[in-house]
Amino acid sequence: MDQLRQDFRYALRTLGRTPGFAAAVALTLALGVGAATAIFTVVDATLVRGLPYPDAGRLVQITMTKQGTFDEMEATYPAFLDWKAQSASFASLAGYQGSGGTARFASDPPRPAASAVVTADFFRTLGVEPALGRDFAPGNEDPAGKQEAILSYGVWQREFGGDPAVVGRAFAFNGASHTIIGVLPASFSLPPIAPTEIYRPVERMPFQMRRNLHWLNVIGRLAPGVTMEEARAEMAVIAGRLAQQYPDSEREIGTRIVTLHEAVLGDIQSILVLLFAAAGLLLLVAWVNVVNLLLARLASRRQEIAVRVALGASRGRLVRQSLTESLVLSAAGAVAGLVMAYWALGALLAAVPESLVRFMPYLAAAGLDGRALAFTTALTLLIGVVLGLAPLVPRETDRPQDALSEHTRTTAGGATQRLHAVLVGGEVALAVVLLSGAFLTTRSLLAMLEQDPGFDTRNLATLRVLLPTDRYPDADRMVPALREIQARLSTLPGVEGVGLTNRAPFQEGNTVRFRLEHEAAATAGEQAEAMTRSVDPSYFDVLKARLIRGRTFDTRDEGDGPPVVIVNRTLAERSFPGRDAVGQRIVFTFAPDQPAREIIGVIDDVREGALDSARQPVLYNPLMRSGARVVDVMLRTAGDPAAQVTPAERALKEVDAELLLLRGTTMETVVASAPWVFFREYPATLTSVFAVSALLLAAVGLFGMISYVVVQRTREIGIRMALGARPGDVMRLIMGRGLGPALAGIVAGLAGALALARVAESLLFGVSAGDPLTFLLVPLVVIAVATAATYMPARRAMRLDPMAAVRERT
């Protein structure tokens, strides 16, 4: 212990004599440790900790698959019942579906409320019990039964002040009275429906029993001892059995089973792995940079080490002293890194849009807690030990007389210079990998944003309006209200047009299967499928969508007129190749009594889903025939669309004070805050920050190495110049020392970047893993930075006074 205390005090004194060196090492390590710790906290909260349910590893999600356009979809309710009856792999199966609605608590006016319908075993499958009251009773999915509801903890606190007597009280949801039977724990959430306030039992209505209506999200808990592979095998057998029993609906239908954790995380899982790898590479660059600094410092301490060896210090004693100094340095870097991690974590979480945070409740667990401190401590010890085992210490202990015979300045050994070059080349290689990743993710983001949405997003505002059920129970009441809404908004100054739809662009929607009228009834696997939208006659004009053939809706298509539809280009080309789709008739297959519908127009593809998704076939129905309870109002404006949102909201309240406004924004804001933009912009931004940091560290390392070479070879350079070497020759000599390792690092880095890009190619859009532009620009950027880093030391070398340099003693 006495020796350890001596080593510690000696390390502090030694580092205190070189504060610039100590600060450079600590700050370099802080950059790497801070980035790694910040990303670790997010990865730990999402990928490592898992879902907050008992034995969450045995929870799975089951979806249906179908070969063709829509490869994965929700389950049908009949299939869910068949799975429950025929499978033995699950201790329980349950289903849920998020929805919206209006709630009226006490005498307050109705307000929008996020709701979900769940099967009776939903909470029991998750292993969650109400904090107050009881769960739904088995068999509660009965339209003739009581209207019961379980509240979230948040709505219980907001609307009822946490009153424990809330159980048994009633409130109105969508105009119907519901009895509160329980309150969920404060910690409960299921990310896909995280903002849900009200949970209601599934009502087994006749239309829900159709085998071609996919709407139920199914989760299950594996039975004890059952593996995922066994469950998948059993479900494949059940799917085959159902396909034989119900060929019209179940043919070519399969199932997909993944852990609920994997289903909840979705795209963010791959993104976090990518970011954690990028942060690890940045940490490695910082570590290599520090190693280079320590090697340079060690060379300047050769005589000190030699004296200590001559006085009897053992190799173990010197290594322990080196370890002590490196641990002090790494600890200082870790402390600074924690400060940087705290700031970086706040920035990471703040960059997540509020619209997505609601569906990522697991981010609340991301913080600098004990797990993060343990990670940083382990990282600090690892870095300190590796840095402390300096490779040149044993050499100084072998022949101390060589070091003692040297004076204040020496010519660096060839082995030391080669090691410096290898380390700098490694830094450059890692920087190239990060820079290539930043280029690829950024180009992928730009390629997505350059996709044609099929309409003009400029000067376009959107508002979502919900018509309360009790005031607008059917189409006879909804359609006149929609006309009045459209007429009132059209009178606003600065509004050039008003269009209505049941779902605005860029949102996935319901799908419907159909067949051509002249074709015989097809089985499920042979039926075409398309997204559906309901729009009013002004909708396409307001969007400035391109009509290819035929016409759009008008008054002829309302009321009891002949059933008609408009299709998009993709559907027309797939279903009517080489033919004119206008005038053709199609039949929806979800019910046998569906009439044939005439196609009256073909519209160019409007992006109804994400910009980075494949174009899908879409069918447009006339909105003014049946109305809609939730309507997206599209406003084409003459000026700033954001300025029209508030006047439009006031005008809607003038139409009916009880209309519920769910959101109002511009279409450009919708795009900017969309999940599919975030999931490409977030990694592109962070990898760019990491890449620039790594490139700067590599440049500093290269600058330091060349500066070290110039100092150590001052006398040699003077002799060369005295013998006739010109300044240009010296410049080429010194810059060659730096650009050689840099070029080797570029080659190695490009090979590594290409290999990693191929592994992560599924995360790219509109750009290949071997994108020529990326792999052309990255080397040019790195060469330019490397040239700048080596130029200044080389310039100083060529300006040396030959006579002064020759007088330098060896």
Produce the secondary structure layout.
Layout lengths: L1 H16 L1 H30 L10 E8 L5 E2 L1 E2 H10 L3 E10 L2 E3 L6 E2 L2 E4 L3 H5 L5 E2 L14 E4 L1 H8 L9 E4 L2 E8 L14 E4 L12 E9 L5 H18 L1 H4 L2 E7 H6 L1 H34 L1 H9 L4 H36 L3 H4 L12 H19 L4 H6 L1 H5 L9 H36 L10 E7 L8 H16 L4 E7 L9 E6 L11 E8 L3 H5 L3 E4 L13 E5 H7 L9 E4 L7 E8 L14 E5 H4 L3 E8 L4 H14 L4 E7 H6 L2 H38 L1 H9 L4 H33 L12 H27 L3 H5 L4
Parallel strand pairs: 7-12, 9-11, 18-23, 20-22
Antiparallel strand pairs: 1-2, 1-13, 1-14, 3-13, 4-7, 4-13, 5-6, 5-10, 8-11, 9-12, 10-11, 15-24, 15-25, 16-24, 17-18, 17-21, 19-22, 20-23, 21-22
Your description of this structure?
The chain has 810 residues and is an alpha+beta fold. Helix content is 51%, strand content 17%. The strands form 3 sheets. Strands 1, 2, 3, 4, 5, 6, 7, 8, 9, 10, 11, 12, 13 and 14 form a 14-stranded mixed beta sheet that branches. Strand 21 and strand 22 (596-603) form a beta hairpin. Helix 16 runs antiparallel to helix 23 (675-712). It is elongated. The two termini are 40 Å apart.
- Residue runs with pLDDT of under 50 for 5 or more positions: 406-412
Major sheet size, sense and barrel closure: 14 strands, mixed
Helix content: 40-55%
> Which strand-content bin applies to the residues?
15-25%
Number of helices: 27
What structural class do you assign from the helix and strand content? alpha+beta
Distance between the ends: 40 Å
Give the overall pLDDT as a whole number: 85
Instruction: Tell me the Rg in angstroms.
Output: 34 Å
What spatial form do the alpha-carbon principal axes imply?
elongated
